[in-house]
Write a structure and sequence with these properties.
The protein is α+β, with helices and mostly antiparallel strands and 283 residues long. It is built from 8 helices and 9 strands. The two termini are 36 Å apart.
Length: 283
């Protein structure tokens, strides 16, 4: 068992840049937080935002996340106190669009002239810069969006990652959560039993059974490999031979593999769409 570090009175906030984007750097934030439990990590959302309460230097926190991530992680770390100061004044930006906060990885080489608008009419508007944070608004025109993070990186000349204002509020609220509530958050990834499976999972199992248990013309069930009567054969059965049984087993394995591949591909695509949709609400 790994030794748990002491609790830090000023927690750190870890932002993973470009995590869980569409088709790239997809991972489970809950599983990552569970893997780094010795650092007292609390997960916020699906975009790759974590609160680290362990007493540990920033460089070691970055190294721990880079080692634990299943992909090449681009880690940005800032004290939670900096975010609290940003939110102390309240949301001063009002108007059309969603308010975003771009978290800069380092101090920009030169100050940019603000406000800064991109698009005609504007789709991304950077309005204020305070320390490591750039606050602005973004909106869609005709169903199209501009990448606010890429615009901030190009204008300020440093790496950045973007979260919406509501995510930053959740980070500050997460500091006051009691330890009992944090420890009771569900982190188990155990497979559900058949009785507790969702209707969609039961429907897939039903389809799989109909494919694998199809009736052969010679009266042999493709699942069992033995003789089985049917209405098509009018009660007559064909004796099972070793060759027929082995052929049935091979057909079963091929059908099972093809079915599982199709089901897993559909499940992966659906999970990726759900993650991307949730990430758009946070970034």
């Amino acid at each position: 068992m790994s030794k748990r570090a002491s609790t830090n009175s000023n927690p750190l906030v870890v932002f993973l840049r470009g995590a869980n984007a569409i088709g790239s750097r997809v991972f489970s934030p809950v599983a990552l937080a569970s893997k780094l439990s010795r650092l007292e990590v609390q997960n916020i959302g699906v975009a790759g935002t974590f609160i680290v309460r362990a007493q540990m230097p920033r460089a070691k926190v970055c190294a721990a996340f880079e080692k634990a991530c299943p992909h090449d992680a681009d880690v940005i770390v800032h004290p939670l106190a900096d975010i609290e100061r940003l939110l102390d004044g309240g949301r001063s930006i009002e108007g059309d669009g969603r308010v975003f906060v771009a978290v800069l990885a380092s101090r920009p080489p030169a100050a940019s002239r603000l406000p800064l608008e991109r698009g005609s009419p504007w789709m991304v508007r950077s309005e204020s810069h305070s320390g490591a944070f750039v606050v602005g608004r973004k909106r869609s025109i005709g169903g199209q969006w501009l990448d606010a993070n890429a615009i901030v990186e190009r204008e300020f000349g440093v790496r950045a990652t973007t979260r919406v204002w509501e995510t930053m509020e959740r980070i500050v609220k997460g500091r006051s959560w009691p330890s009992s509530a944090r420890s009771s958050q569900p982190i188990s990834t155990r497979r559900r039993t058949r009785s507790a499976a969702s209707p969609e999972a039961n429907r897939r199992r039903s389809i799989t059974c109909r494919v694998l248990h199809r009736q052969r013309l010679d009266g042999i069930c493709s699942q069992e490999g033995g003789p089985r009567s049917s209405s098509a054969t009018r009660g007559t059965t064909t004796p099972s031979t070793t060759t027929t049984a082995s052929t049935c087993t091979a057909s079963l394995r091929a059908a099972r593999s093809a079915t599982l591949i199709a089901v897993n591909r559909k499940r992966h695509n659906r999970t990726a769409r759900l993650i991307a949709r949730a990430r758009r609400r946070e970034c």
